[in-house]
Design goal:
- The complex is a heterodimer of chains A (about 325) and B (about 550).
- By secondary structure, chain A is an all-alpha fold.
- Chain A has 13 helices and no strands.
- Chain A folds into two domains: about 80 residues, no CATH class; about 230 residues, Orthogonal Bundle (MetI-like fold), CATH 1.10.3720.
- Chain A is flat.
- Chain B folds into three domains: about 170 residues, 3-Layer(aba) Sandwich (D-Maltodextrin-Binding Protein, domain 2); about 110 residues, Dipeptide-binding Protein, domain 1 (Alpha-Beta Complex); about 230 residues, Dipeptide-binding Protein, Domain 3 (Dipeptide-binding Protein, domain 3), CATH 3.10.105.
- In chain B, helix 7 packs antiparallel against helix 10, helix 8 runs antiparallel to helix 11 and helix 14 packs antiparallel against helix 15.
- The longest helix of chain B has 19 residues.
- Chain B is globular and about 75 Å long.
- Classes of the chains: A mainly alpha (about 325), B alpha+beta (about 550).
- Chains A and B meet through helix 2, helix 3, helix 5, helix 7 and helix 8 of A and helix 1, helix 5 and helix 12 of B.
Chain lengths: ~325, ~550
């Protein structure tokens, strides 16, 4: 019980610190939203429009920082994130909710897949180290992980979409299809997601393989594994229950972290494939000094990572009794 | 376990393969559809408020229309649009327009002069909507039957462009019910234009033809797709593959990347405004005109254009007149005063008392001619251009150090005058060279250092020049206007407040496989970039399927 309480307390303090930093950091940046809007306009606007923009955006340069801080905390408590300047006059909540499903579907799925596949390959490679699988897969994926993402993605687009024409090269779906829960749309969206998903997978799986393989090898040298062998347990049981269960522990925290970061999107993926998602939104909010959007996204990431870590702590406690409280 | 893994891999591959074999989208839109590929760096918010600077390029021109169309490529030639005629009176202080009969809103209600009156009063009531600052010059707007009279505070000939050509007219019966028009999203815009917004998602907007459009038999295009692109490469790829027919962005190496892909792929980049070096005239060294003139001599604009801009943006001249778009305004004698001449640059500095020590010139007080120049780090062409300029200036003994900033920092520093030199093409220009010259030279567009200036970022102030600029506003006579602009060109050459280097262009690529009627150098009926409003509506109105004759 004390373990849970201590963890929760830690969670609350971290959350408060994150929220406060979230408020302060954007305000230390130079410029203001009306200025960045002017430059986005590619010149086709009357020079005196600046005033109109400031009035429209309600840019208050005279509001005190303390006052703004408490308004901000109050709004967050009510999950009221305000109006986005980037997508003016739409609300932040509406915009984020539109982009989030794409990110969750693509980055979420690939993160889980990369973890599962990477862990399995790592485990098996370590179990049969020196074998064919161990000799081929880990080196290949470690090399692909070292590729710069955009380079691999551009290569994939060139080969599979432009030369071979198998997959769509950009976007979340074909512009001429109608967005609906129909087979035509879902299959089209799936076809558009294959290249981004595969490239993410290929570049992120290597890390999981390597750590899992090394952990497993260390664990296999432990006395309790030798003991298990001596007892005559089946190799299958030893691999899963003795080696795997222990070797996965360090990876679990890493996995939780990356699950938390799923909601931050994948800027490079979205950039190269023109794929919808929150990553690009994030970048834009920073460029446009869109405090409201920026803060909502930061908050979402912070909370997601904190929750994921909390969950990982819980999972570790279940898998590994040693980490539980002595009391 | 090994078998299991292999199995999993096979399943994976099979799944991928079936996806590979999945139906390849064959509907590229048909022959009466246009897909626009214009990288805006954003996804669509699905708002269409024509007074919202962020989204008005998506509705003004197609859905909403203006009173008079003004062609920026033909020195402001006018075409009557929602107004069937206009006339100036009262020594160019009063503008009267007659509203065209028989025009209908897309919901079937007729357009009246009341809608026009309502629109301008809406701007008066809501400062946040008045993007063109119309009410900074307007005194009063009144209606008399089907006529609307605009009373100005002073002579206002150049303001015709902002009032008649840049203000979208909205329906009173809808907008009068809106509580806060500034934060109104306008998700289902009702306008008089040739197209209706049919559907919108963050990734694509679909427009369909307005069957009841007032120009009979137009438009012939049925559907317009406007996908959102957050980066250049995918947008360019859509153009090169022919999936998109109308492009409006920078394509590196356009001949091999785009033009060579199909005989139907064409491009034209008509210049509209200068990219210049803005010189902070309050800098203790740069306020000496000799230094500015030396720099103007020392820059080989042709080389900057070729190396920095792939030759897409042509070299400028010191008069500030963009050629060939506004060639008729150019004083040919002045155009060549500051042709590339490094010898003259050195002589100018020496004659003004500057001494060369080593590779650098110094002021008589011993200060080096070494300046910082602001630039936007994200604009790779500008970064390359400034590198070329840096070398050319170094050759005569002037050192410049580029500071490649993020656009927000860059903008703030420019507006507030916190720079020595700044490479800048952010002036909006207008349908005649006067607009850019006014933006650069008019003291009312300036501000003290530390306060944001509207457009006169170099802080040039001269009462004689101000008088010329104001004089232009009071005459509608082309000959007088040309005379005044020539005097302004003289100011540009004599005082070198800014150094125009290259000419910013409208980015425009088009595909003629299925469609004709595009803007061409021989027929520049509108500015051809899809991001120019309301011009893009005029372009879409003129496109025709190739089969139709």
């Amino acid at each position: 019980m004390r373990f849970v309480l201590r963890r929760l307390g830690f969670f609350v303090v971290t959350l408060w610190a994150a929220i406060t930093l979230n408020f302060l950091i954007p305000r230390l940046m130079p410029g203001n939203a009306a200025l960045s809007m002017m430059s986005r306009y590619k010149g086709h606007i009357n020079p005196n429009a600046m005033h109109a923009l400031e009035v429209a955006f309600g840019i208050k340069t005279h509001e005190s920082l303390v006052h703004a801080y408490f308004t901000y905390i109050g709004n967050i408590a009510r999950l009221h994130f305000g109006i986005s300047l980037t997508f003016f006059p739409d609300t932040v909540t509406h915009q984020v909710l539109q982009a989030l499903p794409w990110t969750l579907a693509l980055v979420g799925t690939t993160t889980i897949l990369a973890f599962i596949l990477g862990t399995l390959i790592g485990l098996v490679a370590a179990w049969r180290r020196g074998g064919v699988l161990d000799g081929v897969l880990p080196p290949i994926f470690v090399i692909t992980s070292a590729f710069p993402y955009f380079w691999l993605a551009l290569l994939a687009i060139w080969l599979f979409s432009i030369k071979l024409g198998w997959f769509a090269e950009s976007g979340g779906y074909d512009v001429t299809t109608t967005v609906a829960w129909s087979w035509a749309f879902v299959s089209d969206a799936f076809r558009h997601s294959v290249l981004p998903a595969v490239t993410i997978l290929v570049t992120s799986i290597g890390g999981w393989i390597l750590t899992m393989r090394n952990n497993t090898i260390t664990v296999l040298a432990e006395d309790y594994v030798r003991m298990a062998r001596a007892k005559g347990l089946s190799p299958w049981r030893i691999m899963w229950h003795y080696a795997g269960r222990n070797a996965i522990l360090p990876n679990l925290t890493g996995f939780a972290m990356s699950l938390g970061f799923v909601v931050s999107g994948a800027i490079l993926v979205e950039f190269v494939f023109n794929y919808p998602g929150v990553g690009w939104m994030f970048l834009q909010s920073v460029e446009n000094q869109d405090y409201a959007l920026m803060q909502a996204l930061f908050l979402m990431i912070t909370v997601a990572v904190l929750i994921a870590i909390l969950a990982a702590d819980g999972a570790t406690a279940i898998l590994d009794p040693r980490t539980r409280d002595r009391s | 376990m090994k078998r299991l893994m292999t199995l999993a891999l096979v399943v994976c591959l099979a799944a991928t393969a079936s996806a590979c074999g999945g139906s390849k989208s064959s509907k590229s839109g048909g022959k009466t559809a246009v897909t626009i590929s214009n990288e805006q760096g954003t996804t669509w918010s699905c708002g269409f408020n024509p007074f919202n600077s962020d989204v008005n390029f998506l509705s003004f021109g197609t859905v909403y229309e203006e009173l008079t169309f003004v062609n920026g490529l033909k020195s402001g030639q006018t075409t009557d649009w929602l107004a069937s005629s206009y006339a100036w009176s009262n020594s160019n202080k009063t503008l009267t327009v007659t509203i065209r009969p028989g025009v209908k809103w897309s919901d079937g209600k007729p357009l009246t002069a009341g809608d026009v009156l309502f629109t301008f009063n809406l701007l008066k009531k809501n400062e946040g909507l008045d993007l063109n600052a119309a009410w900074s010059v307007l005194k009063d707007v009144t209606r008399n039957g089907n006529k609307i009279t605009f009373d100005f505070k002073g002579s206002a000939v150049p303001y015709f462009y902002y009032i008649a050509a840049q203000t979208p007219i909205v329906p009173e019966h809808i907008w009068s019910t809106i509580k806060n028009p500034v934060t109104y999203k306008d998700t289902h815009p009702v306008g008089t234009g040739p197209f209706k917004m049919a559907s919108c998602s963050p990734q694509v907007i679909k427009y369909t033809k307005n069957a009841g459009y007032w120009q009979k038999g137009k438009p012939t295009i049925e559907t317009v797709y406007y996908p959102a692109f957050t980066s250049n490469d995918p947008a360019n790829q859509q153009l090169a593959s022919g999936k998109a027919q109308w492009g409006s962005q920078f394509i590196p190496n356009i001949k091999s990347y785009y033009v060579s892909k199909s005989a139907d792929n064409h491009y034209w980049f008509p210049p509209t405004v200068n990219v210049s070096i803005f010189i902070n005239l309050q800098d203790p060294i740069l306020k000496d005109v000799a230094v500015r003139k030396a720099m103007a001599y020392a820059i080989d604009r042709k080389k900057v254009s070729e190396i920095g801009e792939y030759g897409y943006e042509p070299p400028s001249n010191q008069t500030g007149i963009v050629t060939p778009t506004f060639s008729s305004w150019l004083d040919p004698k002045l155009a060549h005063v500051f042709d590339y001449n490094p010898q003259k640059a050195i002589q100018t500095l020496q004659a003004a008392g500057y001494k060369k020590k080593g590779n650098l010139f110094y002021t008589p007080e011993g200060k080096p001619l070494s300046f910082r120049i602001l630039n936007i780090g994200g604009y790779s062409d500008w970064v390359a251009s400034v590198q070329v300029i840096q070398k050319q200036l170094a050759a005569v003994g002037i050192k410049i150090t580029p500071e490649n900033l993020s656009s927000t920092t860059y903008d703030a520093d420019n507006y507030n005058g916190k720079f020595q030199l700044s490479y800048n093409g952010n002036e909006s220009g207008g349908p005649a060279p006067y607009y850019e010259l006014r933006q650069v030279l008019y003291s009312k567009n300036s501000a003290p250092i530390g306060k944001p200036a509207a457009t006169n970022w170099e802080r040039y102030e001269n009462p004689a020049t101000d008088r010329l600029i104001e004089q232009y506003a009071s005459t509608a006579d082309p000959a007088t206007q040309h005379g005044i602009v020539r005097k302004l060109e003289q100011v540009m050459v004599n005082e070198v407040p800014v150094i125009p280097v290259t000419e910013g262009v409208d980015w425009y690529q088009y595909n003629t496989r299925d469609l004709k009627g595009w803007v061409t150098p021989d027929n520049p009926y509108a500015q051809p970039a899809a991001y120019v409003n309301p011009d893009w509506g005029v372009v879409l109105l003129n496109l025709k399927p190739k089969s139709a004759s």
